[in-house]
C-alpha cells in the first residue's frame, strides 16, 4: 500500500541509538559553497568500443571528471559556486535493496537543505513504477527520523526495476517535466546506472532541464571500475554473511560429521563469496570466475570437491564448509549453454512442459541427467537482463547431491574408505540484505548523498557520484563525479545460429580479478583453509568500539585511488609545463622531448585495442 511508505517505524533500543548516529563528512563537502575542479575529457576504458559508445551518447560522452575540493585547496581553475537557488530533486530506489540506501536519501536531503532551505526532495514510491506513475512523497526531517542508519528500502519501496524501453523512458521524461525536477537521482547498481546514462542522454537530446545523477548502491559489489572502489551495501552484506558462515564453521567443528554447502547472494560476480572467504576462512570456495576461466564442467567440479573431501578424510576430518556464489551455475559452460537454449525456447513461446523435447540432443541429455528439482528451477523465466533467476537455482543442493553420489561410488569401488559423506545446504542472501547497515556503509551512503547534490549544483548530467581512498579515514576520502559513459564497455554477442554479432554500450558487472591482490591472498591461503580448519569469526556488526571501523579485506588489499592518481598526474604535467617553456635550456628541452617520446610510445602500445584485455 502506498500509504505505508514513509510511516514512522517502531524502533528497538538499538535502532534508536543507531538513528542518532551522525555520519562524518569529508572536508571537501563541508560548508555552504560547492568547490569543483574539472579534469580533462574522459574516454572509454574500452578503446575498441569507444566509437560505438560516443555515437550512442553524443550529448554525454567525453565529459570531464569532477573533483570536489576543500575550502583551503588552492586550485586556480576551480569553480566556486556560492549562489545556489532552490531546486526540486526526485530520488528513486532501483534494483535490490542494499543496507545503507536510506542514508543516501538522508545525505541528499541534508545537502539540499544546507545549501538552500527552500529546496524540495521528492521520493518516488515503489521504485521505477512510482516514477512512471508520478507517485511521490516529499521527504522531510520528520519522515527521515526513523529511517536514518536503518536497513531496507521501505521508506520508498522498490519494484522489479528497469527504465529501458521507449515507453518507460518517455514516462520518466514526462514525470520529470510534470514535476519540474531540476535533478533525478537514481540509486542502484550496474543495470540501474546504465539506464541512468540512457536517461541522461535522452533528456539532453530532448532539451529537458532535469539532470540525471547515479549513486552506486548494490549488495553485489560488482559496480567497480577505475572510478568506483566500492558500492553501498557490500560491506554490510559481507560482514553479516561472514558471521553466519563463521557460526556454521563452529558448528561443523563441534559436530565433526557434516559438510555445509553455502550459496551466497551476489548475482553473476563472486565478490561477496571472495570477501566472506577472506573474513571467515571456510575450507573452500568455488569462484565463478575460476570456473569460467578454466572451463570447468560439472564433472570437474564434482571431482574437485570429492578430492577435497577425501583429502580431509585422510586427516580424519569428516566435516567442512564450502562457499558458492549464486552466479556459479551460469559459469559452468555446459549449464550456461543449456540455459541459453531454454531461454530461447521460452522467448519463442514454448510451454515449460514441452521444452525438454525441443532441446538439442546434447542439451536434452544434460537436462535429463540433472535432478528434478534443478530441472524445474532452470525452467524459470529469465530476468530482465536475460540471466537465469540465480537466487532461485539451488546450486548448493545440486553439487551436494553430485558429491554424495560420487563419494558413494568411490566407497563401493574401494577408493574411499572413510565415513559416509553428509551434507547440509544453506542459501544466505535475504537474511543479510535487510540488515542494519555497518558504520562504513552509513558513512559512505551519507557522503554519496551529499555528492549527488554537489553534482547537481555543478550543473552536471549523466554522472555517477564517486568516493575514492575509501580504505582511509573519512576525512581523507576523495569525493568526485565521473561520467557514466566513461564506465561503459561494449560486449559483442550473438543469439542463435548464424546471428550477427552486435555491441551494446552498458556498464557491465565487474568480475573478480584473477590477477588481483585479493585473489592472490586467497590463493596463498587456499591449502591452509582446506586442511587446517583455521576458521575465523569476525562476530556480529559492531557500531562502536573494536571492529566498528573494520573495512572489507578486498577493499584494503587492493591498490586503488584512481581519482587521486589522476590528480597526481595532473600535478606532474603542470610541473613539466612550468619547467619546459620558451626560454628553457636546450638540454632541458631535449631531456623533456626524449622522456615524453618514450612515455608516449609505451602508453600508445598499452592503450591499443590489442592490449586492452577485451
TrEMBL record:
Q: Where in the cell is the protein located?
A: Cytoplasm
Q: Name where it mostly resides.
A: cytoplasm
GO BP annotations of the record are: photosynthesis; response to glucose
Q: Name one Pfam family in it.
A: PFK
The UniProt record lists the Phosphofructokinase domain at 88-454
UniProt pathway = Carbohydrate degradation; glycolysis; D-glyceraldehyde 3-phosphate and glycerone phosphate from D-glucose: step 3/4
State the GO CC annotations: cytosol
* Recorded GO MF terms: 6-phosphofructokinase activity; ATP binding; diphosphate-fructose-6-phosphate 1-phosphotransferase activity; metal ion binding
Which keywords does this Swiss-Prot/TrEMBL entry list? Answer: Allosteric enzyme, Cytoplasm, Glycolysis, Kinase, Magnesium, Metal-binding, Transferase
Gene3D superfamilies from the UniProt entry: 3.40.50.450, Phosphofructokinase domain, Phosphofructokinase, domain 3
Ways its activity is controlled: Allosterically activated by fructose 2,6-bisphosphate.
Query: Which SUPFAM superfamilies does the protein's record reference?
Result: Phosphofructokinase (SSF53784)
Function, as annotated, reads: Regulatory subunit of pyrophosphate--fructose 6-phosphate 1-phosphotransferase.
Q: Which HAMAP family match?
A: Phosphofructokinase_II_Long
The Swiss-Prot or TrEMBL record describes its family as follows:
Belongs to the phosphofructokinase type A (PFKA) family. PPi-dependent PFK group II subfamily. Clade 'Long' sub-subfamily.
Q: How does it assemble?
A: Tetramer of two alpha (regulatory) and two beta (catalytic) chains.
Name of the featured protein: Pyrophosphate--fructose 6-phosphate 1-phosphotransferase subunit alpha
Amino acid at each position: 500500500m502506498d500509504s505505508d511508505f514513509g510511516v514512522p517505524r517502531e524502533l528497538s533500543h538499538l535502532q534508536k541509538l543507531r538513528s542518532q548516529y551522525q555520519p562524518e563528512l569529508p572536508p571537501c563537502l563541508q560548508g555552504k559553497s560547492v568547490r569543483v575542479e574539472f579534469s580533462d575529457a574522459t574516454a572509454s576504458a574500452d578503446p575498441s568500443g569507444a566509437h560505438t559508445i560516443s555515437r550512442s551518447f553524443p550529448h554525454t560522452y567525453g565529459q570531464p571528471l569532477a573533483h570536489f575540493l576543500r575550502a583551503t585547496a588552492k586550485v586556480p581553475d576551480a569553480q566556486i559556486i556560492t549562489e545556489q537557488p532552490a531546486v526540486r530533486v526526485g530520488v528513486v530506489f532501483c534494483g535490490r535493496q542494499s543496507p545503507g540506501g536510506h542514508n543516501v536519501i538522508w545525505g541528499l536531503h541534508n545537502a539540499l537543505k544546507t545549501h538552500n532551505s527552500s529546496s524540495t526532495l521528492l521520493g518516488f514510491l515503489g521504485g521505477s513504477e512510482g516514477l512512471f506513475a508520478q507517485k511521490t512523497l516529499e521527504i522531510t526531517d520528520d519522515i527521515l527520523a526513523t529511517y536514518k542508519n536503518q536497513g531496507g528500502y521501505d521508506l520508498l519501496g522498490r519494484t522489479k526495476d528497469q527504465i529501458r524501453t521507449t515507453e518507460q523512458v518517455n514516462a520518466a521524461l514526462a514525470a520529470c517535466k510534470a514535476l519540474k525536477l531540476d535533478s533525478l537521482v537514481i540509486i542502484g547498481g550496474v543495470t540501474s546506472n546504465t539506464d541512468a546514462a540512457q536517461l541522461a542522454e535522452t533528456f539532453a537530446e530532448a532539451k529537458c532541464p532535469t539532470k540525471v545523477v547515479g549513486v552506486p548502491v548494490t549488495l553485489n559489489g560488482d559496480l567497480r571500475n577505475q572510478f568506483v572502489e566500492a558500492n553501498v551495501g557490500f560491506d554490510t552484506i559481507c560482514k553479516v554473511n561472514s558471521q553466519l558462515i563463521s557460526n556454521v564453521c563452529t558448528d561443523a567443528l563441534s559436530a565433526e560429521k557434516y559438510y555445509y554447502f553455502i550459496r551466497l547472494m551476489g548475482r553473476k560476480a563472486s565478490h561477496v563469496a571472495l570477501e566472506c572467504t577472506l573474513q571467515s576462512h571456510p575450507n573452500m570456495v568455488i569462484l565463478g570466475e575460476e570456473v569460467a576461466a578454466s572451463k570447468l564442467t560439472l564433472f570437474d567440479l564434482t571431482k574437485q570437491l570429492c578430492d577435497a573431501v577425501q583429502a580431509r578424510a585422510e586427516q580424519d576430518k569428516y566435516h567442512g564448509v564450502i562457499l558458492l556464489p549464486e552466479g556459479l551455475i551460469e559459469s559452468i559452460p555446459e549449464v550456461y549453454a543449456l540455459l541459453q537454449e531454454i531461454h530461447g525456447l521460452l522467448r519463442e513461446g514454448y510451454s515449460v512442459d514441452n521444452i525438454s523435447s525441443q532441446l538439442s540432443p546434447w542439451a536434452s541429455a544434460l537436462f535429463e541427467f540433472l535432478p528434478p528439482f534443478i530441472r524445474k528451477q532452470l525452467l524459470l523465466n529469465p530476468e530482465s537482463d536475460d540471466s537465469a533467476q540465480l537466487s532461485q537455482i539451488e546450486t548448493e543442493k545440486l553439487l551436494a547431491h553430485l558429491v554424495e553420489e560420487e563419494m558413494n561410488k568411490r566407497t563401493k569401488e574401494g577408493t574411499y574408505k572413510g565415513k559416509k559423506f553428509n551434507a547440509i545446504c544453506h542459501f544466505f542472501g535475504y537474511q543479510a540484505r535487510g540488515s542494519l547497515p555497518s558504520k562504513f556503509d552509513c558513512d559512505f551512503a551519507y557522503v554519496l548523498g551529499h555528492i549527488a547534490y554537489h553534482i547537481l549544483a555543478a550543473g552536471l548530467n549523466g554522472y555517477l557520484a564517486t568516493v575514492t581512498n575509501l580504505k582511509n579515514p573519512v576525512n581523507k576520502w576523495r569525493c568526485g563525479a565521473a561520467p557514466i559513459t566513461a564506465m561503459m564497455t561494449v560486449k559483442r554477442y550473438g543469439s542463435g545460429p548464424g546471428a550477427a554479432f552486435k555491441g551494446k554500450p552498458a556498464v557491465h558487472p565487474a568480475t573478480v580479478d584473477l590477477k588481483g591482490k585479493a585473489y592472490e591472498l586467497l590463493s596463498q591461503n587456499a591449502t591452509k583453509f582446506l586442511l587446517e580448519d583455521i576458521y575465523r569469526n569476525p562476530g556480529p556488526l559492531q557500531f562502536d568500539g573494536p571492529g566498528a571501523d573494520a573495512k572489507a579485506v578486498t577493499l584494503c588489499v587492493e591498490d586503488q585511488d584512481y581519482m587521486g592518481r589522476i590528480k597526481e598526474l595532473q600535478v606532474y604535467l603542470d610541473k613539466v609545463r612550468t619547467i619546459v617553456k620558451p626560454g628553457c635550456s636546450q638540454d632541458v628541452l631535449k631531456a623533456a622531448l626524449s622522456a615524453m617520446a618514450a612515455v608516449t610510445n609505451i602508453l600508445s602500445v598499452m592503450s591499443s585495442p590489442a592490449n586492452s584485455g577485451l
